Each structure stands twice: as C-alpha cells, then as structure tokens.
Amino acid sequence: MNFLDQYHNCQLCPRKCKVDRSRGKVGVCGETSELRISHVGPHFGEEPSISGSRGSGTIFFDGCSSRCFFCQNYQISAAHHGEIYSADRFFEAVKDLIDKKVHNLNFVTPDHFWPHIKELCLKLRALSFPIPKVFNSSGYQLPEMISEYSEFMDIFMPDFKFADPDLARECMGDERYPEIALEAIREMVDARGFLDPWDPSGERVAERGVLVRHLVLPGHVENSLETLDQLHAEFGDGLPISVMSQFRPVPACFAKNSLTRGVTPQEYDLVLAKVKELGFEKVYTQILSDQTDYLPDFDNSEDPFPGHRK
C-alpha cells in the first residue's frame, strides 16, 4: 500500500469530505495531497515544557480542517503561504532540525497531512533517530485515529477551543466540536497520560503525555469557564493545561464584524479565577499584553516568531 492512498477518498479529519486529494482536488482543509509547509525551524515560543532551552523543532503545515475564522495562523491555515515539499525534502528538513539539537519534533496542524508524517516517522524509526514527537493540533481530530497517531507521537498538545456548540458552529461551522474534541483528548490521555516530566522552568523538557491548550476569546468568557469545567470533570485537577490570552483580531474578524478586539484584563482574570477555584495543579498562563509577539508573521520565512527568541 502506498502511503498516499489515504488521500484518495479523504477521511482524515471529522469533516470526512471524501475528496480525492491525490488527483489535485482540494479538501475542506484547503489542501491537495501535495505536502505544503510554511516554516520549519527551532521555535522558542511554545510552553517551556516543550521549547526548553534549545527550542522545539516545529513544522508548520498549510491548511486546516477546523477553519476557525479567527485563526491566529490564518496566513497558513487559510491563505496557504507555504511551499510544496517532496517526501525527500521533508525528510532532509526534519533531519536538519534534529542536527540542530532541538528537544523534539513538533508537527503543527498535522492531521490532514498524516500519511506524509507517518511515512516520515517510519523512516526516522528505521534509522534510529530517537527524538520525542509532538502532535500539536486543534483538538478537532477523529477519535478513532488517535491510536494510530500514538504509535508514533510521544506528546499530544491539543486545543480545547469550544465547550459551547453554538459558538463552535459560529466560528468553525461544526457544532459537534465539543464532543469530538473531548473524546479525542480522552483517547490521547489514555494513550500517553499527562505531560511528563512537568517542569515549568523548561530545564527538564517533557518526553511524553498530554497538555491541553485553551485560547480565551473576547466576549466569550462563559465558553472558557465551561471549557475548564468540562476538562476538570473529565480529567481532574492533575491535567496540565495552558490558558492563553494571546488572541488578536485578524482580517476575517473585521470582515465578519466579530471578535474585533483583544481579551480584556477583567475577562482573563475571571478565567484564571476559575482555574484556581477548580484547583488545577499544572497550569501555564500568559501575561496579558498589547504587544503582538505571539502573533506569527509567516511572510518572514526566516523566523515568523522573532518576539520569542531568547
């Protein structure tokens, strides 16, 4: 079986659009079966457990099946600013990352290009490259795919964006997101447990496990509070979480006249108070700032995240 066969009748994500991406047709993710990547390089802006001191070896794939209109990575998820990579070029780029002594390989929005990634991981395994691999995703994954991902991935870093089905439908067109994402995260935790080791200083970088991220959206604090309630009810206070305040409006927000401002201190404080009330023990938070260091610029092919470099 050729690794490209999974693109023929594509059902790699919950949309299950069944498009034959191998014939140049575009799926809901916005991509054909040609591997398109926007950036490969060490990244210092992930949580310290992932970035450590030498950076996380990030591979940013173009396209996304979630299609959130407010996507902070819209230049690659919606505008597709990347380049086509052959399987050989992909392998050489990843090998170069490993040679730079990054702590891990970090596959960002990977599910719609999973066949390429799986093939890469098989090559790395055959050549005995022992480096942790991170599945960095939207949370909008097929739960039945997690067991296959976990054959190769050591760390899962999913979002849990929406607990409110109506908000999910408004933002990404699928009210099923909360149930799909929660079930996918259950499977991830069953497969890999919680992030380990847990060292917020970044001196000991994580080697396996799950860290769940949540981006607070302006005007939708109740969604964040319910998200935290659901995560706590399902996984308890030992679940490592990252509660992010970095939202910035992107062009589509103004086009839709929705989410056209940042998060206020009052909103973020309410969410952090909920984190404390529930008793989460392993938490990353952010300093609320008017600066845009967290917002990438993929037009800068050398370093889309200059504000993160140490």
What would your notes on this structure say?
There is one protein chain. Helix 8 runs parallel beside helix 10 (265-278). The strands form 2 sheets. This protein has a 7-stranded mixed sheet with strand order 3-1-2-4-5-6-7, with helices on one face. Strands 8-9-10 form a 3-stranded parallel sheet, with helices on one face. Helix 5 links the parallel strand 5 and strand 6. The protein contains 10 helices and 10 strands. It is globular and about 50 Å long. The protein has a single domain, classed as Alpha-Beta Barrel (TIM Barrel). It is α/β, with parallel strands linked by helices and 310 residues long.
Supply the key terms.
TIM Barrel, 3-stranded parallel beta sheet, 10 strands, 31% helix, 13% strand, globular
